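Need tokens for this chain, all 452 residues.
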Amino acid sequence: MSASGGKHSRMSLSSELIAARELLDFIDSSPSPYHAVATAAARLQSAGYREFDERAAWQVSPGDRGYVRRGGALIAFELGRLPPSDGGMLLVAAHTDSPGLRVKPRPEVDSAGCRQLGMEAYGGLLLHTWLDRELGLAGRITLASGRSELVKLTSPALRIPSLAIHLDREVNSRGLVVNPQTQLAPVLGLTTSDAPTLGGLLAKELSVTLGEAVAAEDVLGWDLAAFELAPGALIGHETALISAPRLDNLASCHAALCALLAEPNTRPETRVLALYDHEEVGSETASGAGSRFLLSLLERLAMSTPTPSHDAVSRALARSLLLSVDMAHATHPHYSNKHEPQHPIFLGRGPALKLHAGQSYASDGPGIAALDAVARRAGVETQRFVTRGDIRCGSTVGPITAARLALRTVDLGMPMLGMHSCRELAACADLPPLISLLTAFYRDVVVPPPRD
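Here are the structure tokens for all 452 residues:
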């Protein structure tokens, strides 16, 4: 249903704001992929899902609900009335990671009287947007005992200062170019005899969090990301806009989780939610879309019947459909010439279904038709995103999962501006329709046969 084909159907303003505030709560509690997984796991547990151990033997039966965690990735499932080989599967996938800055193994750098922390650029971030913001550190710490713990370090705050215009008079006319090696080390403090080390700060934070003494030398490994300390906010006229870090792609993770938990599964299909890590750096990791993580879980579910057949997995996948949910580019009011003129995408006009002839998005005609039929029944208007032919198209977990599993896939997402900035912008009005569409997908979709 085209966004231009009539007035956009909107929920009440108060409902939109409630949904947006719930999203902001999810984002603020998820400053790293590991925190996002912990937040999602807590919601799943509250809804009656139980955690499964990949190392253990599983016994599952119709109606069982569970999830598996692997670092910054999580896969949840709810079995349908029939075995997956006979009922098929309805899958939604998103990713927990966002472009940003990651802490180096030996981060302390002293320069010009300042103690700084060395950072690596992670993913295709807009480097300049990380300047002049108060930053914290969050992620996973591994101790000498082998135990891993989550950490969220908010004090002392870090900052990457810009160079004064007096020392670079042409910066506004020439443009700012930030060197990721030499100009992205945030200032931690001053170089003094008692200048803090990152290991010392982490040990102090963990000692408070765990209620037990942790020595700096016991902190042996970390997977830490910088994050903006300022929380997400609702801004604009009638607070119609969402300003927040990591909208790409925590907004999709949140919407997919809401859809999975919205109502019990009464269908023959098994429901699956896959929240991958490392999409922003190519997905070729043990917890990314290029791994066997999802396939391994689907194999377990498909072979869980008392007398499984050798082709149970293939039969299950042939009856299945995947929605790959990642944020979409809204048409930028300053740079409309960067967008395909026949396919404008507007904030507040509903989810965008993404297509690309070169298969950077995995959507095809039968998949689009199946999803749009669901959208029409749910009263959700959709848009169509196509990139300009002279600009290289981005991609996401959809084509990777489609190829890995030979699984029909539709790519879609919530429109936004400023993608891959330290802080991004979206419309409150687009969140409830996305949740409604994903909920209706789990409830109503008719899976097209693979021969179509």
